[in-house]
Amino acid sequence: MKHEAVLAISALALGITLTGCQDQAGSGGAGARDQIRAVGSSTVYPFATAVAERFAANTGKKSPIIESTGTGAGMKLFCAGVGAQHPDIEDASRRMKKSEFEQCQANGVKDIVEIQIGVDGLAFAESKDGPGFKLTPELIYKALAANPFGAGENKTQKWSDVDPSLPNVAISVFGPPSTSGTRDSLAELILEVGCLSNPAMKELKEKSEDEFKATCTRIREDGKYVDSGENDNLIVQKLAANPTALGVFGFSYLEENRSTLKDVPLNGIEATYDNVASGEYPGARPLFIYVKKAHLQAIPGLKEYVEEFAKAWGPGDYLAKRGMVAAKDDVRAKNAAIIKSMTVLDGAELK
User: Fold this and answer.
1) Contacts of residue 338, Cβ cutoff 8 Å, sequence gap at least 6
2) How many domains does the chain have?
3) Domain range for residue 251?
4) Quick check: is 163 in a domain?
5) Is residue 262 within 8 Å of 149, Cβ to Cβ?
6) Same domain, yes or no, for 188 and 174?
């Protein structure tokens, strides 16, 4: 009897939650919300928007609202709670962090479905009129770190101060803000790798993860790195006006603007579709969407919208034409199965 009572209470609680989803509009007014809402990554934004357009055309339903908030800011919105006043989907250019998963759980967002939709590259680019940079994670770290290798404030002014082989021009990098998943990828894929070129930093990582992160991922704040917001197209425009500057953004923005921009190779490897897909390019990273399972029945079309990604993420499909790199066959098959069953993320392997 006790077990049956617990099940009854759980069912009642779930019913109340779903009723809340159905009875509250996204603005908090009366009536059901009849439009899907997604927040998050500016890198995923054009792909989520393309899927939204196809979904609306195929179903006749309203096109989902896609907001480019940045991955970190989107996670806060997504994890704030369950109900129509909260987003249904988080678009992410990195994997959910353990701390974010725990925040979701604490706010009642218990059943989260994680779906890898493709692969992207963290691209470095310059104007077609740029000096022709060739960089490595170590050189980028030395140029951008606030306190390179813990040796004191970064005083370098020109790229040639970092290494004599580099152009004799001022260090000027337009990149994503701290709320962006692209910024997290810059820290993890480039800055940490460059920092670990120093054996002492490997020892520091083993000794104190916090000190390691502060030393290896904190970016200088003297104007050499310019936080350019969540609109990556603005960085593209700034590179046209500043031919000796560098830009950091998702690979798709480089692909769309190769008429005005050129790729900056990392470790001698260019950011091409094939190099990103194979993982050979140092800046390759997975792209995700996160879905609230509790919203699937309450928000019209949510399941169909998510299913549309699986119809669009192959090498020859329309997301590839928008600049997204298709994941390997086995990864796509695995995530198609997750969409079909809506398998819930357990969070055990998150960092």
Assistant:
1) 113, 114, 115
2) 2
3) 121-284
4) yes
5) no
6) yes
